[in-house]
Q: What sequence folds into this?
């Protein structure tokens, strides 16, 4: 969420409440009668959005309930000589949240406020445990789809009119970006949804029909999470640990397609290393998706004058002067970032980053053919590659078959609510190689340690975590190429 100090609106003057209102006249209260809350349908969009976004409760008789006397408020509140109450923020938000009613299908009238619609959409997203929402313009309407365990649930799609979708789009842009001109890049926002503040990432692109917007939900990072908690098996966990801890320098790449859990894996590795070894860790990210206590995380910013841009390149150069134990780069997106990453490793640093490839073999292909990294640089700098995918995990109601466990087609009370009956969540299938520094380290025969997708498929199947269908799918990852 944007800091209140930075919020700006046309023709508004933002004033710290304590600077204009006599503190002695501010009343701290213990309870509020819901009947005293004003009718939100009678508010202007501008006022409505302010109250919802900044947890301000408007009451009848020109009274407002805020959580702090240091809140910055717009001119329209102060110019009427209001009565001010102070109350707990969570209780304010609870009353605001009660205006959102969860429905199987969302229906909005022309009078529905755009931010109220956004909160209803997000409340449905969270109730479905969906990781992503896609809002896609069509020729005649706009469809909202919800992704659960990587699959869009057809039965839960919502449809809205293009005109109303445009109101939602502009509201999302206003709460996600400091400058609306940046609307075609990723942004972040936070709102109070279902009894808690939740963070989201917004991506907007232009299409021939209008726009496509994707909202991804980010839960608070669990600082006690380990690779074991993410369901990594013992052997790949051991290899990952050795890649990180038995190399004084080198690049460790975590690869896989979008939605394969690369970011969560890297954050978990960094958090484990910081807590275990008290390492000095610096990250360059765009955007910073999850905050980790004790890690120096830096946001890429290429807005404004070019000379003041914060890019991957100049951040990495600055990092190398601060002697970090580990440098983490959110994603290698182009040749320049790839070459600077290699350079950081060759100057004696341990570097970890992500790359979009399908397996270890295709990672080397992409580095050399698409990112223009010479074989000699790979031999000198690369210390390990982890490739991963998320696959369907069998529910506890699984059935023992002749060759192994299979999913229960009838399901149970746990998995019957999922998009795939008989399955409950996803687990990582992985391929990981620890590399030596030296001649032809990219050839499988020269790996120091190696765990293949075939190994992963076999172990997961024998452990009763996947069925035969998923086992065959994982084995096929071994031969995918970019």
A:
């Amino acid at each position: 969420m944007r800091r209140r100090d930075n919020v700006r609106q046309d023709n508004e003057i933002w004033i710290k409440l304590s600077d204009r209102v006599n503190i002695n006249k501010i009343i701290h209260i213990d309870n509020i009668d819901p009947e005293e809350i004003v009718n939100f349908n009678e508010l202007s969009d501008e006022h409505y959005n302010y109250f919802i976004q900044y947890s301000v409760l408007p009451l009848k008789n020109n009274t407002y309930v805020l959580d702090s006397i240091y809140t910055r408020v717009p001119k329209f509140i102060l110019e009427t000589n209001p009565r001010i109450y102070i109350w707990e923020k969570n209780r304010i938000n609870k009353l605001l949240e009660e205006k959102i009613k969860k429905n199987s299908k969302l229906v909005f009238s022309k009078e529905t406020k755009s931010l109220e619609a956004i909160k209803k959409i997000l409340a449905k997203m969270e109730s479905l445990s969906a990781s992503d929402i896609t809002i896609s313009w069509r020729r005649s309407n706009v469809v909202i789809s919800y992704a659960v365990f990587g699959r869009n649930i057809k039965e839960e799609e919502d449809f809205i009119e293009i005109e109303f979708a445009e109101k939602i789009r502009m509201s999302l842009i206003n709460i996600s970006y400091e400058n609306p001109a940046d609307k075609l890049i990723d942004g972040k926002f936070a709102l109070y949804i279902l009894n808690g503040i939740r963070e989201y990432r917004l991506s907007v692109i232009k299409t021939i029909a209008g726009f496509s917007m994707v909202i991804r939900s980010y839960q608070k990072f669990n600082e006690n999470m380990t690779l074991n908690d993410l369901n990594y098996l013992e052997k790949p966990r051991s290899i990952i640990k050795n890649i990180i801890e038995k190399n004084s320098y080198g690049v460790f790449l975590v690869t896989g397609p979008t939605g394969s859990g690369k970011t969560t894996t890297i954050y978990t590795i960094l958090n484990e290393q910081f807590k275990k070894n008290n390492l000095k860790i610096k990250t360059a990210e765009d955007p910073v998706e999850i905050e980790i206590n004790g890690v120096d995380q830096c946001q890429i910013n290429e807005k404004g004058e070019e000379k003041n841009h914060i890019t991957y390149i100049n951040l990495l150069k600055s990092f190398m002067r601060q002697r970090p134990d580990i440098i983490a780069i959110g994603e290698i997106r182009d040749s320049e970032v790839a070459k600077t990453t290699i350079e950081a490793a060759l100057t004696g640093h341990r570097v970890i980053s992500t790359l979009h490839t399908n397996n270890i073999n295709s990672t080397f292909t992409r580095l050399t053919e698409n990112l223009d990294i010479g074989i000699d640089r790979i031999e000198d700098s690369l210390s390990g590659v982890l490739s991963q995918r998320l696959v369907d995990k069998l529910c506890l109601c699984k059935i023992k078959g002749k060759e192994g466990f299979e999913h229960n087609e009838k399901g149970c009370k746990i998995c019957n609510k999922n998009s795939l009956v008989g399955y409950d969540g996803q687990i990582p299938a992985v391929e990981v190689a620890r590399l030596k520094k030296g001649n032809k380290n990219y050839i499988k025969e020269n790996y120091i340690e190696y765990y293949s997708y075939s190994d992963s498929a076999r172990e997961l199947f024998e452990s009763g975590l996947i069925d035969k269908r998923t086992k065959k799918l994982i084995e096929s990852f071994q031969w995918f190429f970019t």
Summary: DSSP finds 14 helices and 23 strands in the chain. Residues 278 and 294 are 9 Å apart (CA to CA). Residues 262-277 form the longest helix (16 residues).
